Amino acid sequence: MSDQDYPGVTCGEGWAAAELDDIGEGYGFRKLRKALDVQAFGINALVLPPGLATGKHYHEEQEETYIVIAGRFVIEFGDGQSCELGPGGAVRVNAETVRGIRNPSETDDLVYVCAGGKGGYVGRDGVLPPGEDRGVSPISPSSS
Fold first, then answer.
1. Total domains, the chain
2. Angle made by CA atoms 120, 36, 41, in degrees to the nearest 5
3. CB 56 within 8 A of CB 38
4. Is residue 84 assigned to a domain?
5. Residue pair 101/57 in contact by the 8 Å Cβ criterion
6. Residues sharing a CB contact under 8 Å with residue 3, sequence separation 6 or more, in sequence order
7. Does pTM surpass 0.85?
8. Position 88 in a domain
9. Alpha-carbon gap, residue 56 to 100, rounded angstroms
10. H or E element at residue 7
11. The domain that contains 30 carries what CATH number?
């Protein structure tokens, strides 16, 4: 990843972070995989204007999961069924399943994230670093 390609991305030792607006503007793709240097799976955010539909597609190998960030999301499947989801909604789709997405709103943009991969789940492999004794901690009120 080049800092010149995505100057709004903040990087550290083993991590990268950005707001979606740091990765692109207007409608279309926000290439999260490239901007954040994701290696293990594909991931993009997309912004669709009101009333727009993507073309139908399927994949040869990768399963996809879509997560709605803002707006209304309609996914139509090759078998004629569809689902409508709002912010926080998620749908998983097998590689070979035909799908198309549309924004049914007349006024609001649709923002969603799509992650895809193959090869299977690696299991729960989280490990506490030295000195940590629990995975969840209460947050202290800010002192400012």
1. 1
2. 15
3. no
4. yes
5. no
6. 9, 11
7. yes
8. yes
9. 4
10. none
11. 2.60.120.10
115 - beta bridge partners? 43, 65
Nearest Cα to 98, choosing from 78, 74, 76? 78
Q: DSSP string spanning 60-129?
A: SS-EEEEEEEES-EEEEETTS-EEEE-TT-EEEE-TTS-EEEE---SS--EEEEEEEE-S--------PP
pLDDT digits (tens, 9 = 90+) for 63-104: 999 999 999 999 999 999 999 999 999 999 999 999 999 999
The pLDDT confidence band at residue 132, using thresholds 50, 70 and 90, is confident
Residue type present at position 77: F
Domain membership of residue 127 (yes or no) is no
Average pLDDT over residues 108-122: 93
| pLDDT tens string 20-79 | 999 999 999 999 999 999 999 999 999 999 999 998 999 999 999 999 999 999 999 999
Q: Range of 43's domain?
A: 10-117
| Element spanning 35, H or E | helix 32-36
Which structure tokens are listed for 71? 């707006």
Kindly state whether residue 132 falls inside one of the protein's structural domains: no
Place of tokens 């909604």: 89
Locus of tokens 């399943």: 97
